[in-house]
Amino acid sequence: MRALLLALLLVCTQQASAKIAPASKQVIGYSKQNLPTTGVLRHQGRFIYVDVDDGYVHSLLPIIKKYGFGAPPYFGKPGLVGAHISVISADELNKNGIARITEVGKQIKFKLKYAKVENPPNWKTVDQVYFIEVEAPALAKLRAKYGLPKNEFKFHITVGIKPKA
User: Fold this and answer.
1) Is 80 in a helix, a strand, or coil?
2) Which among 162, 164, 89, 160 has a CA at the least distance from the CA of 124?
3) How many domains does the chain divide into?
4) What is the average per-residue pLDDT within 130-140?
5) Strand order in the sheet with 84-88
6) Between β-strands 47-51 and 38-44, what pairing exists: parallel, antiparallel or unpaired?
7) Domain of 147?
8) How sure is the predictor about 17, in pLDDT bands with cuts at 50, 70 and 90?
């Protein structure tokens, strides 16, 4: 499961080739009207993320299901992270010797931008990932504070995945 989480994170490094998702306007419109644009900075193990409302998956899956998307594999399983925005990977924490993030537990605001899809290269079981790109200046500042480079991926919430046929 950890490998799959890392793989989902890596797909976002390819976001330059991402394209606007089907039903993007509907997904973003619904989200802006019905879902909060704040979350709480959390950690699980050595992974730092913003815990966001699970409605980003529960409420949006019915909209994108007709395009073949289902819930991300880590969603809805006990002990795993639900809807979230990845901030700092365990590898980054280890590589940079970061022992503690003092901001854990603080509220983080974000702005919804676009719904996009990405075709992850070399994945055997996933054809596409559906995500909402977000703007979160506080997260960029957090990474800079801890000496991390600008993230390789855009901050985002993964809404669904489409398995390969």
Assistant:
1) coil
2) 164
3) 1
4) 96
5) 19-20, 111-118, 126-135, 156-163, 84-88, 47-51, 38-44, 107-109
6) antiparallel
7) 2-163
8) low
